Amino acid sequence: MSATSDIATDAIARExxxxxxxxxxxxxxxxxxxxxSENKIFLVNDPERPEKHVMRVNSGRLxxxxxxxxxxxxxxxxxxxxxxxxxxxxxxxxxDGSLVQTIGAPDMDKPxxxxxYSFLSGAEPPEDQLATGFERLGEISAHMHLHAxxxxxxxxxxxxxxxxxxxxxxxxxxxxxxxGVGIGGETLKLLSRLEDVVRKRTDELAxxxxxxxxxxxxxxxxxxxxxxxxxxxxxFDDCGFGWYLFDLASALSFLEERPDALELVACWLRxxxxxxxxxxxxxxxxxxxxxxxxxxxxGWVGYQxxxxxxxxxxxxxxxxxxxxxxxxxxxRFA
Length: 334
Prior knowledge:
Layout: H1 3-17, E1 30-36, E2 40-45, E3 53-57, H2 67-83, E4 101-103, E5 112-118, H3 130-150, H4 164-168, H5 185-203, E6 212-215, E7 224-226, E8 231-233, E9 240-243, H6 246-251, H7 261-273, H8 280-283, H9 286-303, H10 309-333
Antiparallel strand pairs: 1-2, 2-3, 3-5, 4-5, 6-9, 7-8
Helix pairs in contact: 3-7, 5-9, 5-10, 9-10
């Protein structure tokens, strides 16, 4: 992390800590950085409360990092917690009843929006239990999708659309895949051909109530917390409207080249079918949705080269692996 990044993180941490009284935490509350990816997550520990909390500070760069869209995300999270047995964090209201706060300071690059949740214990499923984890992911995804179909969002509800146009034209500001690591020459030609085929095939997919609706959009194993008592889902920051099976494509993020990738897909579908039917026409295009997601990730990895060690570590290899996946896909579907 650069010195500039350290200064920015310190400023954000300072301003975030200034919100503790707004949520009714005591003066002895500590706020410490817990993790960092697109957003910064802080652990909030109040000695006068039995439970811990987390404070999420959005990066502010994505098109849906607005107070209205974040509040809409939180309202779906509240509804899931109230209406279903899915284990999700409890959203905290501030003393004034608000769900989203905004912080800013001269030494911050931009204002940031903040939400506070209950802290959930648990760990990502271990490497040797991915099949079991994927089956559980599919089951939970089906429950969420059934809720989304029946739930009436409140007035003013606004979340992004995870459509091919939004992803491939970088309307949500994840990063254009053309700006990914090492994109040029034959790689650019190959991935451009991939984009053309993905666009054509997704143009023919149904977008009715049974196929398309409110989804998590980032339901990877990293966002699944397992402990002996329950399996919880976190990180609804990307939730929006898309094909329900795009949640399967998202689940496979960074795992697409594993030798057991097809088995993981089958496990996810097996879990899903325990709860709900899988749209047959969309199921046939799961490989297309996986490649749509992969193009999205190429852009994200490219943008994050300046910000995250993880992205720098996988950058060149991720593009090379994507080309192999694209070649295999085009041999089947072009």
